[in-house]
C-alpha cells in the first residue's frame, strides 16, 4: 500500500491505495484517476502532483449494488438487532465494539463536525437573506446533510437549534 493525500479545497485527506506497476498504469472497470501529492515529510516543497489509479467501491466483488436500508436514525435497518433502550450506546458484538441506536439497530455515525450559522458579519447577512428563521435554517440544513449521506452533528454545533429540530423531526440529526 502507498499512503497519499488528496487536496479537496482547503482540506487534505490521507488515502491508502494499492501499489501499482512502475509506470502507474492500471486500467479496467472501476478505476478512476485521482490527482494527489505524494507525501514527502522530509521535504514538503518537493511534493509534486501525480495521477493515481484508484478502485471505486462499486467495482469490488463484495460490493452490494443496492443501497443499505436505513431507519430514521440512519442506522442499518437490515443489520443485527439489539435491545432497544431509547438511547445511543456501545455494545460488544462479535468481539468488536459497535454503536447501537435508540431502537436497537447497528449504527455508524456519519457526522459533520460543526453545524453552525456562523458569527461573522458576512455570515449573518447571508443567513438573513437565505433563511426565514432558525427553524427554517435547521430544516434546510438537515435535509441537505441527509441528501449528502450524513446522519448527525458533531462537536461545536448549535446544540440548541439541533435539539429543537430533533424534537419534531421524522429523522433526527
Individual helix count: 3
Described by the principal axes of the CA atoms, the overall outline is extended
Uncertain residue ranges: 1-27
Euclidean distance between termini CA atoms = 36 Å
Rg: 21 Å
- The order of strands across the largest sheet is 2-1-3-4
Tell me the fraction of residues in β-strands, as a range.
25-35%
Structural class: alpha+beta
Total number of β-strand segments? Answer: 9
**What's the story with the biggest beta sheet?**
4 strands, antiparallel
Mean pLDDT: 79
Order of helices and strands: EEEEEEEEHHEH
Helix share, percent: 10-25%
Descriptive account of the structure:
There is one protein chain. With 173 residues, this protein is of the alpha+beta class. Among the domains are: 2-59, no CATH class; 111-168, no CATH class. It is built from three helices and nine strands; from the N terminus they run E-E-E-E-E-E-E-E-H-H-E-H. The chain has helices spanning 121-130, 134-147, 159-168, and strands at residues 2-8, 11-17, 31-38, 49-55, 89-93, 96-100, 106-107, 111-112, 152-153. Strand 5 (89-93) and strand 6 form a beta hairpin. The strands form three sheets. It has a four-stranded antiparallel beta sheet, with no helix packed on it. Residues 1-27 have low confidence and may be disordered. Helix 2 (134-147) crosses helix 3.
Amino acid at each position: 500500500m502507498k499512503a497519499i493525500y488528496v487536496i479537496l479545497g482547503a482540506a487534505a485527506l490521507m488515502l491508502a491505495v494499492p501499489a501499482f506497476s512502475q509506470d502507474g498504469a492500471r486500467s479496467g472497470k472501476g478505476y478512476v484517476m485521482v490527482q494527489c501529492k505524494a507525501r514527502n515529510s522530509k521535504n514538503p516543497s518537493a511534493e509534486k502532483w501525480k495521477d493515481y489509479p484508484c478502485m471505486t467501491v462499486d467495482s469490488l466483488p463484495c460490493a452490494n449494488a443496492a443501497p443499505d436500508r436505513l431507519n430514521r436514525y440512519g442506522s442499518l435497518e437490515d443489520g443485527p438487532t439489539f435491545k432497544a433502550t431509547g438511547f445511543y450506546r456501545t455494545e460488544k458484538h462479535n468481539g468488536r465494539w459497535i454503536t447501537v441506536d435508540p431502537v436497537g439497530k447497528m449504527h455508524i455515525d456519519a457526522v459533520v463536525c460543526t453545524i453552525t450559522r456562523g458569527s461573522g458579519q458576512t455570515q449573518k447577512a447571508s443567513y438573513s437573506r437565505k433563511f426565514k428563521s432558525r427553524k427554517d435554517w435547521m430544516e434546510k440544513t438537515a435535509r441537505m446533510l441527509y441528501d449528502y449521506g450524513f446522519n448527525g452533528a458533531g462537536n461545536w454545533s448549535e446544540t440548541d437549534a439541533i435539539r429543537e429540530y430533533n424534537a419534531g423531526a421524522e429523522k433526527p440529526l
